[in-house]
Amino acid sequence: MSNIHIENLNVWFGEHEERVDAVKGATFDVPSGASFGLVGESGSGKSTILRAMVGLVPTWSGNMSVGELELGKKRPKAFYKDVQMVFQDPYASLHPRHSVDQMLGETLSLHGFKDIDNRIMQLLDDVGLGPAFRFRYPHQLSGGQRQRVAIARALAPKPTVILLDEPTSALDVSVQAEVLNLLADLREEHKLTYLMVSHNLAVVAHMCDATAVMKNGEIVEVMTVEDMRAMKPKHPYTKHLLDSSFGYRPDAEQSA
Amino acid sequence: MSPLLDVENLRVTFPTRQGEFEAVRGVSFTLGKERLGIVGESGSGKSLTGRAILRLIRKPGRVEADKMELNGRDLLSMNKKQMQGVRGQEISMVMQDPKFSLNPVMTIANQIMEIYRFHTGASKKSAYAKGIEMLEAVSIRDPERVMKSYPHEMSGGMGQRIMIAMMLVTEPKILIADEPTSALDVSVQTQVMSIIDRLVRDRGMGLIFISHDLNLVSSFCDRVLIMYAGRVVEVLDAGKLHDAKHPYTRGLLGSLPRIDDPKTRLEVLQRDAKWREAPSVSGRI
Predict the structure, then answer these.
(1) Which of A23, A132, A197, B269 has a CA-to-CA distance to B36 between 20 and 30 Å?
(2) Is residue B140 part of a domain?
(3) How far apart are CA A129 and CA A125, in angstroms?
(4) Which residues of chain B have a CB within 8 Å of the CB of A199?
(5) Is residue B139 part of a domain?
(6) What is the CATH classification number for the domain harbouring B233?
(7) In the CATH scheme, what is the code of domain A4-248?
(8) What is the mean pLDDT of chain A?
(9) With an 8 Å Cβ cutoff, are A240 and B187 in contact?
(10) DSSP 3-state assignment of B152?
C-alpha cells in the first residue's frame, strides 16, 4: 500500500533559450489504493508527470514521494519494484523478438524472484491469458493480448503502484472494455494504487475516483468523479472537454 | 432523385498463401446529398470500402462489384486516365493522419496549387487566390503565412484542416473522410468536425464518414452502416443508434464507458460466429 504525493512539481526540457516548461507547479495527492486520473490534450504534460515519477526525465524540481519514500535523483532498487508503468502502445512496448516467457522471466529474475516458472504461470493467469500464450511472440498476439502481456510484466515484481499511460487508446472499444475490466479487477485483488493518464474523459470517469485536468503544463482543476458525472466543472477548459466528449453538437460550434 | 453514388455487392479480395481472403464481402449502399457514416472495429473492412470506391486498392488486391456508379457512370470500367479525373475532382478523400498524407518537402501553397491546376488548368495566380480562399474557409487565421510553410511547421489540427482545404479546392461532389479526427485531440476534433459539417452543408456534397467512434458518428451523420468482418450487419438512422437491434451494435454501445451512466463493470462483447456468415444488409435507398 502506497500513497502518492506530488508537490510543486516542475519538469522542463532543454536549457536557457530553448527551455520548455512541460509541467509547471503540479500538486496532487493520491491516497493509498485509490485510482487517480490525469486528463488533457497532447502536450499538456500529463505523460511527462508519469515519466518524471519513474525517473525517465532527470530535469525536474519539487517534491515527489511514493509511500514513505521521498524521490530524489537516484532511486533505491525497491522503488522500481514498487512502482511499475504500462505504456500506451502495446505494439511498441514489447520486444518483438522476445517471447512472453522471456519478457516476464527477465523482469522476474532482475527483481530477484525465485520460483520464476510458477510465477510466470500465475501472472498469465492473473491477466486472463492461458498457459498457451507463454511461448508466443508479440506478432502472434492481438492488440488486446499484447496489452495484457504488458500488464502482466508490470505486475511481475509485485508493485503497489501502477502508472498507466493511455493503456487503452490504441485498442478497439470492445477490447478496451476487456482491458479496463481487467485493470479494475487487478486493483481490487492486489490492492494497487493507479495513476492513469488518458485523453478520454469517459474512461477516466469509469476508472478513477478523482481526476486532475491539465492544460499547458498546469493543473487547472482537480475534480471528483461525482462532480464530473454531475457535469459541474469549475474551470471553463474542463467544461469544454466535457462538452466535446459527448460527440458532435452543431450548436457547440466554434467554442474551441 | 438519383443517388450520387450507387454501390452494389462490393467485394475486395486479396490472394494469400492460404487462398483468397475477402476483406470486404458484398457491401451495398447508395449515397445522396447526405452524411453517411461507416462504423466498425479495426479489420472490419470500413477503410477498404472507402478506398475501393476510388479504386485505390493496390494489386494483387482486387475490387469487384455488381455495380459501382458515380452519377450513372461506371467507375469499374474506367481506365487510368478517366479514374485520375474522378479522384480529387469528383470524389476526394481525407485520410487519418495529416503527418503521413501531406508531402513533407513541398510548401502548402505548392501542394494546394498543384491539385487545383492539375484538375482545372488554371493560372498560377488564380490557383494561389483559390488556395487562400480555401484556407480561409477552413478557419485558418493567417493563410498567407500558412501557404509559405512546410507541413512540419503545422500542428496536427492545422495539418488536418489544410488536408480538408486541399481536398475541397476542386469542389468535389463527394468527400470520403477516413477517420479524419482520430489523430487529433478532443477539443480540436470538434473544430475540425464543425468545419466539415459547414462545408458539406454549404456546398451540398455527399459525405462518407468512416470512423470507429460510434458516438461521434451518430451525432454527426444522417445514416450509419455498421460493419463486421467485411459485411454490413445493420443500417440505422443516426439518431436511432441507441435503438439498434443487432447484438454486435448493442455490444459495441455497451462496451463504451459513459460519463452520465456509471457502471461497475463494462459489458464485454461476445462474438457470435453466425454474424460472420449472415448476409450483408443493404444500405441502398
Answers:
(1) B269
(2) no
(3) 6
(4) 185-186
(5) no
(6) 3.40.50.300
(7) 3.40.50.300
(8) 89
(9) yes
(10) helix
